Amino acid sequence: MRLMLMMQAFWRSFVRSGGACLAVIVNHYHAVGAQHIVSLLVFSFIIMTIIAPTQAQDDFDSIVYGLTLEPSGIDPHINRSSELGIPLRMVYDTLVYRHPETGEFVPGLASSWQISDDGRVYTFTLRQDVTFHDGVPFNAQAVAANLDRITAEETGSQLARFLLGPFSEYAIIDDFTIQLILSEPFSPLLDSLSQVYLGMASPAAIQAHPGAEYQFAQVGSGPYRFVEYRLGERIVIERYDDYAWGPTFYQPPEDPIDEIVFRFFTDEANRTLALEAGEATVMGELPPLDASFLVDEFDILQARVPGQPTQFMMNVERFPTDDLAVRQALILSANRGLITGVVFQDFSPIAWGPISSNTQFYDESMQGRYTFNPEAAATLLDDAGYIDTDDDGVRERDGRRLAVNVIVPPWGLLPEVAQILRNNWEPLGIQVDLVLTPSFGLLLGEVDKGEYNLVAFNAFGVDPQFLSQFYRSDATNNWMNVDDAELDALLDAAQQATDDAERARLYAQIQQMIMDEALMLPIREHVNINGADRTIENLTFDRYGWFPLLVNASLRDG
């Protein structure tokens, strides 16, 4: 059996390398002499004879998927980037899923669930036919081990722990029944449990590979198994042949893709070139201008991403954005139509509020708020006493110049957006200083200094509970420094309400309050633009917009 596996591995290498491994035989001939070359050739002939018929019937399909940045870590329980979920959505199963079309919750590793009348106890009945890729059975004890890891302080979870909300403990009822017990109602819990950051990992694997080591040896139960992560080079996943579970919308074709190699194309200018040169089968987050030129040669796939739009949060504690009139003037004088047309080539719609229009509980009354009106903006500044007294092009009030400091990260074409904003604001007499931060770490450093007026950052998700990460007075990402007890109470009530109609009413109030106070400048709703070679078919994305459902994709013949 071991010999057969060795021969299969040799043949797979032969197929992947386009026959390059024959060169090894020739080189070996020079190394060991003619007396052994016959044996080597006979050995290789036997391998080809045994394996080739099977390979001819089942070609090994491999694709390269281009990622636009390399995450600082790819452990979903620890790290928070959207980028890590692109490969790992296929490695991990979750207790429940959101249907990509309807948005409804459907069974995953949990075949059913019940919620107590007070909204504090979630009882999950688990599937009994699931095993992790290492052969460890999935059961209630496995769920418990994952919850222990995510909630442990030493894990240092950046998102997964937050997604669990007021989770306090679990109770194992039997091998295939577990209860999650909350300290207070938390309606977004099912949404949280459907996300890859709360994917179920093999208890044996997380015990064998503690801390940061686990990201290099991940084991899930999804339709693809994790093969390797090489820093700065690639992530590889391979189809798990024994996969026989999953949500109803997982519908693998007869000839699924066997291997997906995720490579990092951090230089935006090289993404289109890589796609055109055949170095990538799929390229995520194509620059909109490039995408507009590729429509005749490639499939341009547009996945709308729910959550917060591209936005600039305003620091209400620092002059001059501590003044509501200034904040409103900045929004009114931002030409978002120009930004979405020039920078985003009309692939993305204008954003009007703190959540995008395809996010749950979006308030339709946000549409058209703060339409572009530089004249109204100038009037607001005049009325608030900001006057250019020395004709240097910058307004002042009480001897202080009307100058704003804007923190600009490199992703999402934000530098281009910020440049247009500066061009909009300077003619109004506003001095604009852009602080470019090449990494998330440097962005955090600038925020910690507190010397900013606006900062670009956002989160994604279907359920708007993520707003609590930003707008609660004690929130980690409350970079606006908003301190409003009424807003805190509304956010808490919206998370705890069990009736969707009530949650919609509360989130409408929250959105209106945020825009009444001009706490943020919305720019555009996110659209994930992907370019795909036309050899790939049925490539779709999940409800969250970033994560491809590669289990359903295949390569066209020829």
State Rg: 27 Å
For the residues shown, what is the average pLDDT? Answer: 90
Structural class by SSE content: alpha+beta
Question: DSSP strand (E) fraction?
Answer: 15-25%
Q: What's the total number of strands?
A: 22
Sheet with the most strands: spatial strand order: 8-9-10-1-11-20-12
Q: What global shape is seen?
A: globular
Tell me the number of helical segments per DSSP (H or I, 4 or more residues long): 18
- Poorly predicted sequence stretches spanning 5 or more consecutive residues: 1-57
What's the helical proportion of residues?
Answer: 25-40%
- Gap from first CA to last CA: 34 Å
Largest sheet, strands/sense/barrel = 7 strands, mixed
Write up what this structure looks like.
By secondary structure, this protein is of the alpha+beta class. It has helices spanning 2-16, 22-32, 34-57, 82-88, 140-151, 160-163, 189-193, 203-208, 268-276, 288-294, 324-332, 336-343, 374-383, 414-425, 440-449, 468-471, 485-496, 500-516, and strands spanning 62-67, 96-98, 105-107, 110-115, 121-126, 167-174, 177-182, 224-230, 234-239, 259-264, 282-283, 299-304, 310-314, 396-397, 400-401, 403-408, 431-436, 454-456, 520-524, 527-532, 536-537, 554-555. A 7-stranded mixed β-sheet has the order 8-9-10-1-11-20-12, with helices on both faces.
